[in-house]
Every structure is written in C-alpha cells, then in structure tokens.
Design brief:
Low-confidence stretches: 1-108, 423-427
CATH class of the largest domain: Mainly Alpha
Oligomer: single chain
Mean pLDDT: 70
Structural class: alpha+beta
CATH topology of the largest domain: Na+/H+ antiporter like fold
Order of helices and strands: EEEEEEEEHHHHHHHHHHHHHHH
C-alpha cells in the first residue's frame, strides 16, 4: 500500500508537514501542498537542533526517505533542494524536515549558509545566460581574456570536476547495480549517438578540418554536470542522471581519446595518449578525490559545497569565452557554420537519446533523463583538451559554441517537459 504525504509549506530546505508527527502522514488540504513525496517513508527521530519549536507539538526532527519528488503542476514554487540532500538508496533521498501543526508557520530566518546556497542555486539555474555572456564578451572584446593562461584552464576544469565528485559517494556507485538496464542503455547511447552525430554533421556540412575535429571531440566528451539540474527541472530521473554523469565521466578516460582518435583522426593528428593522460588528470582524479572527501570528510564538504556551483558556472563561462576570444576574428567570418553544426549535433543528441531510450523499453522519466544526458556534453572538457592537444586554436571553437547551444536547448526542453508532465493523482 503506497502512501502519499502532502507538505503544508516549504521554505528553502525547511520542510513542514501538514500533520501531527505520528508514525504515518495524513492528508489535510491538498490545495496547500507545495510538494508531494511518495511512496516510501522511513522515520528516524533525532534531537531537535532548533532553539524555537512550534507550540504544543513534539519537538523532534525526522529524516524521511522518499522514492520520488514531484512538484505539482499548480501551486507555489519552492527553491530546488534535491541536489543538496543525501541519497539513501536507489532513487531514494533523505530530507531533514521540521514537523509542525497547521498553526505553525515555517518562515524561519535564513542563515548565512542558506543565503549562500540560494544565491548559488540562482546563479547555477541561469548558467546558459552566463555562458552566452562569456562567449559574447570573448567575441566583441577578446582582450578581456588575456589573463587566462593554460594552467588556469586545467585548474578550472579540475576544480569543477572536484565539485561534482563532492556530490557523489561510493554508495552512488553501488546504487548503479539497482538500475542496470537504464544505466547501460544511457551509457551506450552517450558514447554512440553523439560521436556518430558529430562525425556525420561534419561530413554533411563539409566542415574545415579544425572545426570537424572540434565538433567530433565535443561529441566524444562525457555528459555535463549541468544535465543534473536540467533533469530535475524536466521531472526526469535525477538519480539516474547523477549516475549516468558519473559513469560517463569516469569512463571518459578511455572512451574520449579512443573515439576521438578513430573518428577525427582522418581530419587532424590526434594525440590519443596525451588525451588519455589529460582526461585522467582533470576528470578522473578530481572526481574520485571529491567522492573520497564526501565519504570521509563530510564536515569539510558541507562547508565548501555551497560555493562549488557558482565556481563551476564561472569556470565554464570563462573557459568558453576564452576559447571564443582566441579566434574571434575567424569566428566572425565563419561563425554561422559552426553555430549550425553545434545546433545539429545537440538536436540529434536530444532527439535520438529520447527515441532510442523508448525503443529500448525505458519509461518516460528515464527516457527524458537519457535524452538530456546524451544531448548535454561536458563542453568545457572539450575546450581544455582541444587547447592542449590540437595545434589550431580554432579546434576549440565548436566546443565553446556547443556549451551555449546545449545549455539553451536543454533549458527549453526541460521547460516543455515540465509543463507537459501529467499531474499526479493522490492515492
């Protein structure tokens, strides 16, 4: 028997149930619900850490394990919090909730950390705008990026990957065993649809060798971390999104150099060994280091984690803008061709990612997730690899333009899917 709990209010990360704190939730007034949690509930009582508690109510806090978070199609919106909660199992998240009666309002003041997290969420949600502005600045005023040196690009992507690793734990890797069909399907589509699309688009548009190599390179890159946010907005399978990003990122050490050398080798000389070493340094090691910190130094991760999303967004914007600035004059002459190529690449990724997922038997939320994961690449990794291992600076241009294209496409698609998702029935 599945049960459904309705929340009376949600203030940032403070959740208030519309019921007394007995062993099971009860539905009071569905019109007041901001969030629907279903269907697993596991209660554990902790000592209250709040100095102020609701009157005539047991002063306790509960950790509630849930299998899904569903925003209703109507009603007030609340700040997203799923990415900041802890995973307790496959598709199950733990929320730290304050419990109250109807007479208690959870409009408690925000701490400095809450404000930092809120600002970070706002900045992260607007990442397509920041990336577009960074690229535009590099196009109209390239001198703004004269301070960006190769060592800073490597450090920037490494810090971004470290931040992603901090959102993972070793339990996440074990959780992949519970959804092998979805994870394997997504992995295969990630490293087949985009690399092949990059190759075919390059042939179809007859791109110059440097642009073709860059387009294929970004097609062979792993999924981007921004896909997790977009999946959440689209009401997809967030747990699957995180696992797919982690799996494709870790395997990029082998897959990205191998596929790039096979598909782009006919255009330019590809240093597969150099790509392998760089991917190991800027992707695998930082991700594993972040997961290690999250597993064994949670207090440190809790301290710095609110700062990681805005740092990652700023890094992506600067690196993409710098790639544009390095070849601004050439881009002004042939920018339309690169923009068209990047648009076709990501449109094919989103389209075939969804269609083929459904053909393979995945449900709609999982198919949405795979589509977003396939369509959104780690373009900034492509920028770094192109800058380091390809002689022509124009090779990095498709990677930078790709970042803008997949961010905009993904955001628009998420909005469409969010509005078209059927409303959930209360049981």
């Amino acid at each position: 028997m599945q049960s459904t709990a309705l929340l009376s209010s949600c203030n940032g990360r403070s959740i208030v149930f519309d019921h007394q704190p007995p062993s099971a939730p009860t539905i009071r007034d569905p019109s007041r619900a901001n969030l629907i949690l279903e269907p697993r509930f596991k209660f554990r009582t902790f000592p209250s850490s709040k100095s102020s508690s609701p009157p005539s109510t047991s002063t306790s806090r509960h950790s509630i394990a849930i299998s899904r978070c569903l925003w209703p199609s109507k009603g007030p919106e609340c700040p997203p919090f799923v990415n900041s909660t802890s995973r307790v199992g496959t598709d199950v998240w733990r929320l730290h909730c304050g419990v109250s009666t109807n007479t208690f309002d959870a409009s408690e003041g925000r701490s400095l950390r809450d404000w930092i997290e809120l600002v970070g969420e706002v900045i992260s949600t607007a990442f397509p705008i920041w990336v577009a502005l960074g690229c535009l600045l590099g196009l109209v005023k390239p001198s703004c990026y004269d301070w960006v040196k190769p060592k800073w690009t490597v450090l920037g992507i490494a810090v971004t990957m470290l931040g992603m690793g901090m959102t993972l734990s070793f339990d996440d890797l074990r959780g992949a065993l519970a959804m092998p069909k979805e994870l394997i399907s997504g992995f295969v589509l990630q490293y087949s649809v985009m690399p092949i699309s990059g190759f075919l688009v390059s042939k179809f548009l007859n791109l110059p060798s440097h642009y073709a190599a860059g387009l294929i390179l970004v097609g062979c890159c792993p999924g981007g971390t921004a896909s997790n946010i977009v999946t959440y907005i689209a009401r997809g399978n967030v747990a699957l999104s995180v696992l797919m990003t982690a799996a494709s990122t870790v395997s990029a050490v082998i897959m990205t150099p191998f596929l790039t050398s096979k598909l782009a080798g006919q255009y330019v000389a590809v240093d597969a060994a150099g790509l392998l070493l760089s991917t190991l340094q800027v992707v695998l090691l930082p991700v594993l280091a972040g997961a290690f910190l999250n597993q064994y130094f949670q207090s440190l991760v809790k301290l710095v984690s609110p700062l990681m999303p805005p740092i990652a967004v700023a890094t992506v914007a600067v690196l993409c803008g710098n790639a544009i600035a390095q070849s601004s004059s050439a881009i002004l002459m042939s920018g339309r061709q690169v923009l068209l190529a990047a648009s076709l690449l990501h449109a094919s990724g989103f389209f075939f990612g969804y269609i083929l997922s459904r053909v393979l038997g995945l449900d709609v939320p999982s198919a949405k997730t795979v589509s977003i994961e396939v369509g959104m690449q780690n373009s900034v990794l492509g920028v770094v690899l192109a800058t380091q291992h390809f002689g022509n600076p124009l090779t990095a241009v498709p990677c930078a333009v790709s970042s803008v294209c997949h961010s905009i496409f993904g955001s628009v698609l998420a909005g469409i899917w969010r509005r078209s998702s059927p409303s959930q029935k209360l049981e």
